[in-house]
Design goal:
Blueprint lengths: L6 H18 L5 E4 L2 E3 L1 H8 L2 E5 L3 E3 L13 H9 L1 H10 L3 E2 H7 L4 E3 L4 H13 L3 H14 L4 H16 L2 H12 L9
Parallel strand pairs: 1-3, 2-4, 3-6
Antiparallel strand pairs: 4-5
Length: 189
């Protein structure tokens, strides 16, 4: 190289598109963390909808140790998930956060025994795949929009989503299955 690397271009070309893709998918994205998720790896996990982690896993915002800032959406996700004080503490110290503490703080969905992690992640994926995926997509969209919407605007968004879901075959199937005391057979429409 003739000079310092253009890390901004690296973020624009590789990390930002991946975070945007994960966040824009209609389906829930599950992440299973087994080991150390540091730097961009930790923040890629935070972009996902449901994060499960093995008890031995650690999350590290390692950027401060090399004079960088949290990328891959880290400086956006951390304060939204943890609040400003905890986000700054993690980002400025690069101290590791245990999976148990990450669960307690609300950074991840679940901390599990190491041996159970992948079975639990696969079972969750199978459960979601068999569920009312149209409703899941609308739920994900509403939750993502909540951070920047006024209450009135958000209530209207919810009403539009409920209209869409209420007119779906999945809703009809869910009600029918409930009344018949059987498991629903959703089809994503």
């Amino acid at each position: 190289m003739d000079g310092p690397p253009d890390l901004g271009q690296t973020v624009r070309a590789f990390y930002a598109p991946l975070v945007r893709l994960i966040r824009s998918l209609d389906c829930p994205v599950i992440c299973a963390v087994n080991g150390v998720a540091a730097g961009a790896g930790a923040n890629l996990a935070l972009a996902c909808d449901m994060v499960l982690a093995a008890e031995s896993a650690r999350f590290i915002q390692s950027f401060a140790g090399v004079g960088l800032i949290p990328d891959t959406g880290g400086s956006w996700h951390l304060p939204r998930l943890l609040g400003e004080a905890r986000a700054k503490g993690l980002a400025l110290t690069a101290d590791p956060l245990s999976a148990r503490q990450a669960e307690d703080w609300g950074l991840i969905w679940k901390c599990l025994p190491d041996a159970a992690l992948m079975d639990e992640a696969r079972a969750l994926a199978a459960r979601l795949a068999q569920g009312p995926t149209l409703g899941y997509a609308q739920t994900k969209a509403c939750i993502h929009a909540a951070a920047t919407a006024s209450l009135d605007d958000h209530l209207e968004r919810e009403a539009r989503a409920m209209k869409l879901c209420g007119e779906s075959a999945d809703y009809a199937e869910g009600v029918s299955a409930f009344l018949q005391k059987r498991a629903p057979r959703f089809q994503g429409r």
